[in-house]
Amino acid sequence: MTSKEHKKHAAIARPNYGNFGRNEWAIIGTPCGAIKALADEVVSALSANYKCAYVDAQHANTDAEAVLPGRLGSGAAAEYTDQINYHQVDFNKELNPFQFRQLFSDMDLVLVNGNHQQAKAQVVVIDETKKASLQKRLSQLTNVAMFLLADNAAEAFDFVQETIPEWQQVPLYRLNQIDKIVAFFQQQMQLAKPVLNGLVLAGGKSLRMGQDKGAMNWHGKEQRYFAADLLQKFCTDVFISCRAEQQENIDSNYKTLTDTFTGLGPYGAILSAFREQPEAAWLVVACDLPLLDQPTLQFLTEKRNSSAIATTFKSPHDGFPEPLITIWEPKSYPALLLFLAQGYTCPRKVLINSEINLLQPLNPDALQNVNTPEELERVKQVVQNKSTTI
Question: What kind and span of H or E run contains 165?
Fold first, then answer.
């Protein structure tokens, strides 16, 4: 008797990871020393703007293979060492791609020694000294992004041409043309910059205010729509985040995104957005910011650093990051889930304990939120004063 295939997981959008990260290239077809030298050149050129990582394997002689370093040799499963200038963690276990992706989740670019590990894209070096080795690894050439010719090669090997029918359309440089190789990776990183979506947080119950803050009219329309219209100028798509029971009351001209991480407030709304589109960055604004203006959003988007987990403002009130007027990059998704797994649902705590791009606000009033009737009266006066001076 045969049984139907059993699906054990829900069909949700998955981040576009490889074995280690979103943007990874295995360098293959040349000796390990040449791979390391090339990786050094690329990392040195890009590390000022991007977080770069390198993956390799350590060659060991037969006698040394059985000797584990440090306390691992005594039976420890893991050992962390603060090396003062850097940090080192050793594990005495096999790691799989799920664990690698978590370890490298903060990285923008991962270069891999393709002689030992695989990656979702490949840089193939045509080198006569490793011709036989490359021929054995043709199954690894799934997404060749660039060819590099060693000094001893004139063109791609015949078996490479047969394996990759469109090989002539793949960029080709000599291995010593470092400037062109670096330029290639710079272009790839620019192309990989996540699109920016907008998210207006309008799913709160407004208990302290006593009325729906998203429906309040400050500028001739409900604030949730005013904020969404502001975001349209800076974002590819804009959504109003709401609870499921609110959705039918939202103007159909605006896209909505209902909470799928319920009961977590703004934290759940941000996670719900990433669950929907994990490859996008999200410019998140609360619906209780009546003084939010276009110059503030323009400054935020112009100063965006996609290599950081988030770009946000320093609160003029307490000096902490302001999580509800923030660009959250895709790499913040696993960080948010990690904090949730440890029992924390405060987006500000994530920002405080992560590497972020923290900006001084051009207009501190734009960050003023309104949660209570008392705050409402103060901000009303500010809005009226601005109206009379225009």
Answer: none
Nearest residue to 34 via CA among 159, 129, 122:
129
Q: Which two tokens stand for residue 295?
A: 């110059």
What is d(CA 118, CA 237) in angstroms, rounded to the nearest whole number?
Answer: 35
Sheet bearing 109-113, strands edge to edge: 52-55, 109-113, 24-28, 121-126, 144-149, 172-174
Which residues sit opposite 240 in a β-bridge?
200, 256
| Cβ atoms within 10 Å, residue 358 | 16
Q: Give the C-alpha separation, 30 to 22, whole Å.
A: 24
Query: How far apart are alpha carbons 333 and 105 in whole angstroms?
Result: 9
Structure confidence by residue, pLDDT tens digits, 33-72: 999 999 999 999 999 999 999 999 987 665 555 688 899 9
- Residue 327's closest CA among 264, 273, 259, 363? 273
Give residue for tokens 């390799």: 56
Domains of the chain: 24-57+82-191 (3.40.50.300), 196-389 (3.90.550.10)
The token pair that represents 280 in the structure block: 């996008």
Q: Which residues contact 330 (CB under 8 A, 6 or more apart)?
A: 15, 22, 194, 274, 278, 279, 280, 281
Of 344, 348, 349, 308, the closest CA to residue 329 belongs to 308
Strand order in the sheet with 238-242: 255-258, 238-242, 196-201, 281-286, 321-328, 310-314, 357-359
pLDDT of residue 205 exceeding 70: no
Q: Which long-range contacts (CB under 8 A, 24 or more apart) does 317-323 make?
A: 320/348, 320/351, 320/352, 321/348, 321/351, 321/352, 321/356, 321/358, 322/348, 322/367, 323/266, 323/284, 323/347, 323/348, 323/350, 323/351
177-193 tens-digit pLDDT: 999 999 999 999 999 99
